[in-house]
């Protein structure tokens, strides 16, 4: 499920070789995240995590710490004990 201001990460486009289209979607997503001033990105799905962590850096110049939600929660719980 995507929220009204949330767009797909482009995993399907990238996976089927539509790299230009995936790059345009990645640019839009990165612009939206940068506009928030976020230093970390927490994704809800594994595909989004992979795109932000592995594939977006191949297409764009990004430096953003990326977590998949379950790993972020687990890590946060361990450090708060």
Give a short summary of the structure.
The chain has 81 residues and is mainly α.
How would you describe this protein?
The longest helix has 18 residues, at 19-36. It contains four helices and two strands. 20% of the residues are buried. By secondary structure, it is mainly alpha-helical. The protein has one domain (11-79). Helix content is 59%, strand content 10%. The protein has a two-stranded parallel sheet. Strand 1, helix 3 and strand 2 form a beta-alpha-beta unit.
Shape: globular
Total domain units = 1
User: What number is the mean pLDDT?
Assistant: 82
- Helix coverage percent: 55-70%
Order of helices and strands: HHEHEH
Structural class by SSE content: mainly alpha
How many β-strand runs?
A: 2
In which order are the strands of the major sheet placed? 1-2
Strand content: 5-15%
Low-confidence blocks of residues: none
| Spatial separation of the terminal alpha carbons | 32 Å
Largest sheet: 2 strands, parallel
Radius of gyration computed on alpha carbons: 13 Å
Number of helices: 4
Question: Which key terms come to mind for this protein?
Answer:
2 strands; 4 helices; mainly alpha; 59% helix; 81 residues
Chain-wise SSE layout:
Elements: H1 11-15, H2 19-36, E1 40-43, H3 46-59, E2 65-68, H4 69-79
